[in-house]
Design a protein that fits this description.
KH_dom_type_2; GTPase Era; binds guanosine-5'-triphosphate; cytoplasm; alpha/beta; GMP Synthetase, Chain A, domain 3; RNA-binding; Rossmann fold; three-stranded mixed beta sheet; six-stranded mixed beta sheet; about 300 residues
């Protein structure tokens, strides 16, 4: 007799328009801050995987960059990566901001979803902020455009409905061994998570002064003999004026960013951290394939 209990394991892609709440949901599920969450759109540039256990199922979440109408080359790379993540998944969850409802971006995603074979799950998010009638009306309007295998109404922020969603996903994943050790919550290398943390601090601090024209790379990570880590990161901006803004008067701004980032990176790495930040001007960094390959993005094929 086979006494071994059956395990399941699968990939779940979270797709949705920018700001739908994908990062918030993933963080709620995984219970750790893996993917940065800010009030700005398109903060998620690279795919970050979160791994959760539900019963005997291991769920590997792929948090995709917001799908939007691409214009710049970097934007196109983000969208290619987002759909690439969906194609490899066992289930695709479309997250819709119920507060915003159906807009052009969502319509385009719904049309594209029709071509995918995977189990499709609709998640209406932010139910804490909308009326029940609005929710039901939105669900009906979406259903008329695209059939989903299941619909969940949740609040990623309060956690309401998240457990039901997780249980459902756990039940539909394929039978198979777990791909990751039980205690692992992410396979994203610490270096890129650390860069994401610094980028979040940069955004939070500078708001609209530095929209999307900056990126952060961890250029060096050394484990020291006293158990601490010495980390070097470079902040790339596109113009000399932006460099001045990042540094701030008497280095005030960069010092504050560095302190906030160091604290969080240290908590993540579970070690004292010495963080060294450098600011470099690189005019066309967003057109340079090497830069986004380092961010884990795919190189988009240019249409001729
Ligand atoms: N009221 C409310 N706000 C939410 C909820 N979930 C997310 N938000 C907010 O919505 C904003 C966007 O959330 P994110 O998780 O960054 O959205 P995202 O889809 O990952 O965005 P990108 O990374 O830009 O693609 C943040 O200000 C969140 O706090 C929710 O359930 N209720």
């Amino acid at each position: 007799m086979n006494e071994i209990s059956e395990t399941r394991c699968g990939f779940v892609a979270l797709i949705g328009a920018p700001n739908a709440g994908k990062s918030t949901l993933m963080n709620a599920i995984v219970g750790a801050k893996l993917s940065i969450v800010t009030h700005k759109v398109q903060t998620t540039r690279a795919i970050v995987r979160g791994i959760a256990l539900s019963g005997t199922t291991q769920l590997i979440f792929v948090d995709t960059p917001g799908i939007f109408q691409p214009r710049r080359r970097l934007d196109r790379a983000m969208v290619t990566t987002a759909w690439g993540g969906a194609a490899d998944a066992d289930a695709i969850c479309l997250l819709v901001d119920a507060q915003r409802g159906l807009d052009e971006g969502n319509e385009a995603i719904l049309a594209k979803l029709a071509d995918t074979r995977q189990t499709k799950i609709l998640i209406l998010n932010k139910i804490d902020a909308v009326k029940r009638e609005t929710l039901l009306d939105l669900a009906a309007r979406i259903d008329a455009k695209q059939k989903f295998d299941a619909t969940f109404m949740i609040s990623a922020l309060t956690g309401n409905g998240v457990e039901d969603l997780l249980n459902h996903l756990a039940g539909i994943m394929p039978i198979g061994p777990w791909l990751y050790p039980e205690d692992q919550i992410s396979d994203a290398p610490l270096r890129s998570l650390a860069a994401e943390i610094t980028r979040e601090k940069l955004f939070l601090r500078l708001h609209d002064e530095l929209p999307y024209e900056s990126t952060v790379e961890t250029t060096d990570w050394k484990s020291m003999s006293d158990g601490s880590a010495r980390i070097e990161q470079t902040i790339y901006v596109t113009r000399e004026g932006q460099k001045k803004i990042v540094i701030g008067k008497g280095g005030e701004t960069i010092k504050a960013i560095s302190m906030a980032a160091r604290k969080e990176i240290s908590a993540m790495a579970e070690a004292p951290v010495h963080l060294f930040l450098f600011v470099k001007v690189r005019e066309n960094w967003s057109d340079d394939p090497e830069r986004y390959r380092e961010m884990g993005l795919e190189f988009p094929v240019e249409k001729r």
